[in-house]
């Protein structure tokens, strides 16, 4: 999910200035480190498709599981729409630089989502292998840009002394920046969606999640350092493709080409991963009858949740067609944030029902309950940050999830077969 380094994070600069964005980057990095630690322990034990949805189903109960599944689907589908928007905007911008008339980005949006949906339809091994390769290429482009601006010679290309300012909106601006600081890391929790499709979940999931968050922390800091040294914060705070714009400012054609490829690859890789993650969550909800059972089908040849993949395509396309990148990002962030708020409660209940030593864990996160407490406090702070800039969207999303919960309780729950959901060979919970 390296796309956050190529777009979206920079809206935090518009909220809190360059230094406020850096503070948000590291504070939200702490939030996601807690997410990664908690996720690694629970998911290495609950090795089932659906990730956090499967965790809630086994630990907290059906209503929470339904909501968590919906959070995941909405977060990943909105992220997919934002990625497709960036692909369309980037290609039309490059076409304009080459002297072509203004192009409509919507055909590129449809083509991107359709091609990646076909890739996911054909199989998870090919999907995730392609993702690994193009994400690695995107990360290399960040390293190339970092080395290309010669950070060991400050003042030659990087102009931090002239461009870095005090906090333009004070500390309230720093808090407001927390919302878009999430974009650096959003999606790292999606590693656990492939729990049923890896050889050794107890080893692979913690390793993938923890190594992923380390990679993102390094890339996020490098991204901030380069972009804020090349672009004024007033421009950076509203740019659609900040790293590509930073490469253009250097005047080095090779860097511009590298960052065009890197931005394109990062957006495609993120959208590809989002289709994989959202479809697994929707498939799991269908298989457990939280949604119509029709969605719980697996392709007889490719062994993929093909109906869930196809169903979510028009939803992603419709949001991408709005063209409102910051609004789509906000909807994705809010759904993700609701999912993170569930994690501390889930962790406390997990340790209480199954203390250490009662069931086998692939990974045990240290310092419990400190990471859960820190995560909950940071989530509450980020809700306030979102309310400062997007209060209407926050209230609309909350109303949507309340209505969906009522629909589940009064209509859908009667179809759920509770006994079929508990697939883990655990001992009876303590106290039950």
Automatic annotation (TrEMBL):
Ranges annotated as spanning the membrane:
20-38, 59-79, 105-121, 128-149, 169-186, 207-227, 254-275, 308-325, 331-350, 370-388, 394-410
Keywords on record = Membrane, Transmembrane, Transmembrane helix
**Do the record's keywords include Cell inner membrane?**
no
* GO biological process assignments: transmembrane transport
What is the protein's given name?
Putative permease transmembrane protein
Q: Which InterPro entries match?
A: AA-permease/SLC12A_dom, APC_superfamily
Q: Which GO terms describe its cellular component?
A: membrane
User: Which stretches make up the Amino acid permease/ SLC12A domain?
Assistant: 4-397
Q: Where in the cell is it found?
A: Membrane
Q: What is its main location?
A: membrane
- What's the source species' lineage? Bacteria, Pseudomonadati, Pseudomonadota, Alphaproteobacteria, Hyphomicrobiales
> Does Cell membrane count among this protein's keywords?
no
A Pfam family annotated for this chain is: AA_permease
Topology versus the membrane, per the UniProt entry? Answer: Multi-pass membrane protein
Gene3D superfamilies tied to this protein: Amino acid/polyamine transporter I (1.20.1740.10)
| Source organism superkingdom | Bacteria
